[in-house]
Design goal:
Radius of gyration: 32 Å
Helix content: 10-25%
Structural class: alpha+beta
Order of helices and strands: HHEEEEEHHEEEE
Length: 186
């Protein structure tokens, strides 16, 4: 009889403790699922994060002087976004512009801000192709021996696609200030 009382007591405790509550792990898993459904997290990053500027002064043997100021345009960027682990990542790559001043025999022959819009206005870039590119590099082509011309190269790189789609443009400026733009196959 005493054994039956102990057995009954154990059964009562066992039945009352199994009231169908969720385990901590199951509650946490459900809470995380509900949070993911109801909340969206966004992480926004900018490249570069702060204003960046470089200055380059170059004198060539053919009489041309170049003053190039390359700077990040804080109001213009190319954005890329992707979704991973319930978080939306937005990366914005700031566009770079260049203030280009070319001097030939102490006369300023070219003084303009060169940006994507400059190339669009001169029919070297289309509006569609310029949406997903940004200036990666600019250099003066000093490998060629020209007496009355100077060449400045601009390399734009694709930001959105993983494919390597570079656009190489050459700005050719003559001693009178007239300029042309050529696309260079990469």
């Amino acid at each position: 009889m005493k054994n039956y009382i102990y057995l009954l007591l154990i059964l009562i405790v066992g039945v009352t403790s199994c009231e169908g509550r969720k385990t901590k792990t199951k509650s946490l898993t459900e809470s995380i699922e509900q949070f993911k459904e109801n909340n969206t997290l966004e992480i926004i990053t900018f490249h570069p994060e702060v204003y960046t500027e470089t200055n380059n002064d170059t004198i060539l043997s053919n009489g041309f002087k170049h003053k190039i100021k390359l700077f990040s345009n804080m109001n213009s960027s190319v954005s890329k976004s992707y979704f991973k682990d319930a978080i939306t990542y937005k990366e914005s790559y700031r566009n770079f512009d260049a203030e280009v001043k070319v001097i030939f025999k102490d006369n300023i022959v070219f003084n303009q801000t060169v940006s994507k819009q400059f190339f669009i206005n001169n029919n070297a870039l289309s509006v569609d192709s310029s949406k997903y590119i940004r200036l990666e590099n600019i250099w003066i082509d000093d490998n060629i021996n020209l007496v009355d011309q100077t060449h400045i190269d601009f390399l734009y790189s694709q930001v959105i696609d993983e494919e390597d789609k570079d656009i190489h443009l050459k700005l050719i400026i003559d001693s009178s200030g007239k300029y042309t733009i050529q696309a260079v196959k990469t």
